[in-house]
Amino acid sequence: MGIYWKLIWAYIKIGVFGFGGGYAMLSLVQRIVVNDNAWISEQMFTDIVAISQMTPGPIGINSATYIGYVAPANCNPELGSPFWGILGSVLATLAVTVIPFFMVIYLSHFIRRHNESGAIKAVFSGLKPVVVGLIASAAIMLMNGANFCPNGTNKELTASIIICLVSFCLVYFPIKLKNKTYKPHPILVIILAGVAGYLLYGI
User: Fold this and answer.
1) Distance (Å, rounded) from C-alpha 92 to C-alpha 113?
2) Rounded to two decimals, what is the model's pTM?
3) Left if phi > 0, otherwise alpha if psi is -120 to 50, otherwise beta: which for 107?
4) What is the pLDDT at residue 104?
5) What is the pLDDT of residues 188-202, one digit of tens each?
6) For the chain: N or C, fewer Cβ within 10 A?
7) Which of 76-85, 89-98, 125-134, 159-168 has the lowest mean pLDDT?
8) Using CB atoms within 10 A of its CB, is residue 72 exposed (0-12), middle (13-18) or buried (19+)?
9) In a 3-state reduction of DSSP, which class is residue 133?
10) Which of 188, 140, 85, 66 is closest to 58 using CA atoms?
């Protein structure tokens, strides 16, 4: 049963110190659940990130729910039934949300009262570039073999790079059609990437 206390403590730390939202906290999550505790593999972590991005809700909470479900069974085969997985999901999800929830309520009230304070403005001036750096770190961390070349073939690596670049260009750069400028919706890009992946790897 010690795995549940470890899950609670791990996700309390992630929830309290995960500045900048889900993408910014990915490096912290990966460090705790993969490197420090080995609850899941790097391959499974990248799969969880992909699933968490496609499903509704914040990526940090979605990943906590999924990791909380699989970690008990990975650590102890006797905890392999769905009941223990659901218990892990509930505990991890609550641990990552409850304390930040009350922190946000208090801090929003505090910041609203002191939003003209030079100290508050200085703190936010320091936090903004840190968040950008954390998101950039997460992006670089996900550029690994588990995401781009899980089977170790050059064909797969090339196809993954092409899908990545085309998706980036479709979302970032507007397309000019006659006299109109068009940018595909990110949901459409996700669907097209999924279709491309199925045609390349699933058939």
Assistant:
1) 33
2) 0.73
3) alpha
4) 85
5) 888 888 888 888 877
6) C
7) 125-134
8) buried
9) helix
10) 66
